[in-house]
Fold this sequence. Notes:
9 helices, 3 domains, mainly alpha, single chain
Amino acid sequence: MKCEKTIKDFLELDAYQRLTLPITLHILFCPKCKIEIIRIQKLLESLHNASPFEMKEDLSQKIMDEIQASEMTFHQQTSSLWYWMLACVIILFSILLMPFSEDLFWLQSYFGNTLAIPLHLIMGLLLSAYIGVFIAINIHKIKQITCYQEKWHILPSLIFLLCASYRSW
């Protein structure tokens, strides 16, 4: 066994674990490694016998204040709503252009019309996941917008009523 490997294996032993047979055989025939291992053992014993370090003051409250301050700044650093809306428009635009894609024509020629329903379901799930992530990340901004513009609370119901009345014509 080489000297470097012996010292490495010795350092990997747990505290108070007996020396393995290869290490013991090596230090019997190598006085250099024997001196090094004895020196390391004495150093470790002196570290175990040393008194623990005592703090002059309690820093736990300062540490917790720093952690809370960093958490608050983390939540305040969100991306602009315009980037989210731009990405949503790009996703919707790509969904609208998908029926005109040559790849889709090739897939439809291979799979037939059975591809339409799974494809639309996947696109709907992706768009729903995108909107869910958007709401989860920007919930504070959304609450601020709805709190400042209380008159717009009825807008979704008005749009629904207009669409329903348009369909009934």
